[in-house]
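Researcher: Let's try something more involved. This one mixes different molecule types, so please make sure each is placed in the same coordinate frame as the others.
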Amino acid sequence: MNPLSRLAPENRPIAIAAGFVVVIVLVGTIYTLATQGTAPLLNPNYLLQQLQIGAFLGICAAGMMVVILLGHIDLSVPWTLAAAAMMATAVGGPMAIPTGLAIGLAVGLFNGFGVAYLRIPSMIFTLGVDSVMRGLMVAHTGGFAPQTAATPLMRTLAAEKVLGIPVAIFVWAGVSVIIALLLRRTGFGRSVYATGAKERAAYLSGIRTRAVIVGAFVTSGLCAATAGVLLAGYSNKAYQGMGNAFLLPAIAAVVLGGTHILGGRGRYLGTLVGVVLIVFLNSVLSIMQMPESARQIIYGAVIIGMLLVYGRGGRKTS
Amino acid sequence: MRRAFLANRGFAGAVLMFAVLFVVYQSMHPRGFSTAVFVQNANETVAIAFVAMAQTVPVLMGGLDLSVGAVMTLANCIASELVNGSPLQILFGCFVTVLAGTAFGLMNGLIVVLGRIQPIIATLATGAIAIGLALTIRPSPGGDIDDDLNWAITNTVFDFAETYGLADDGNAAWLAPFANIPVPLILLLVIGLAVWLPFKRTVTGRTIYAVGSAEGAAFMSGLPIARAKIAAFTLAGFFASCGGLYLAIQTSSGNADVTQAGAYTLNSIAAVVLGGTSLMGGIGGVVGSMIGACILRVFSFYFRILSIDPLLQPLIEGMVLLAAVSLGAIKTLRVRNTLELFR
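Model: All components are placed in one shared frame. Result:
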């Protein structure tokens, strides 16, 4: 009997994704051993450095997952992230990080209002919010990279190391623990799964589904803002379009981790594995010095291939 | 009658909005209502209109195609390599370009139907593949497009006839009533309507609407769901490649620009919504999206004549998009039974 089929359905994608991470690391190591005679991928310092870069993606993906569990999507992540970073660096001082998070909270509340109360499809509403945030930031900065710098605290959180481990990884771990507990141990988390599975049934069971949707978008906004504040600390400044590289990988990481794009199913562990998969895939491809064109093709093929391996979704018959 | 009106309310609203915006724009323009302005406007609208039409078909089915911008970019790059040389070679180049885009759409459809992967995530991934292929074909912007073709296609009917020595170099009496119509507009209407209107009336076309309204009911009625889904994505690939081909001819070059591809995909969704097509599927049509794309473009024309601070333009664009999609919220205020809000 296939050992994979003994796993619970929601664990199978996680096991496959974890196996694929091992395959990626092995292929990368064989490649570097053959060409350079070294194995940087097995070097703990290199791994930690990769995870430090992956922390920004990981935090975005954590928030994105809560929204996807509802069957919605948050396309406003890129400019929420950039706006939080720009505002945090512009304010500076001790209020820098609270300001950045307040931006995330405000965007999340607004997204939630549009999706939950106005019933506008999240795809199009968050897209509009993203353009508005971009417009606000272009008007604020004049279209140039802002001249303001990150505060020392932001530097510490994103770029320093404690006990040889980058602080950013601790932040990512903290966010992960909060999201995992939120999803598994709180009423809000259970309501998210119930609303994502069937909003009508959840509403009739007495769950305040609209409040749940607002809560999920606020979580996503806060996560994007956290990632923005960290990224600004990492590069010591905020810049135009700093969030653009995070949207699609965040969605891909969540889906590769086994969360169903239509909501209701998925575990946070899967999202973690999905992020690690994407981070390692990227680093192996850059070690192999793949041109951008081949990277894009491999990237797309991996997502399709993995989803095909996870097993086909059921046919809709009712 | 009442039902026909209700079914086309979104479309009628879009047409009205476009007509008002366009007439006001032309009256404010210093050289308004002139052929030159029409030609320029038409040229800037065709590519996004084609991509919006491409997006419409999967949306009608209740899906979404996040690869339309990327497929357009891929077609743009293929065309920039092939559309030159002898007339026969040019025709061959156009044919290969459109064929490639259509084949890519077919692949999307097969992945969605046979692989049973959600359209959003499947096309997200194939979009990356399309961009990768486009970058392979054209690592740096550039290309070579036949100059005559570029001139003939991006101007009026008169210029088209003159370039190819048709109808007494465009001076024939019977051509006079049409002489000042921009060729891009004709191309858009002819390709769009000649493909879409007959297709909509076929069983496959109707099944696309049925799947968008209620997939379960369509399945129970024995409609060819798989065929309709594959056809929807294939048609999306076809329209997207028409847009890419036109963009290549218009700009005489190809450019595998990831940002541009993303912008086209996002604008296509906005145009579809503005054109009165429901993102839930089942309601709307390709013609509405054409109008939706025109509305999007007219807004950017306004920026030029009103000399609005360029720094404020993205903000205004975003606000307009947000306001336009929020119009759909009015219906939620009329719902009596709260339960109907939740699906």
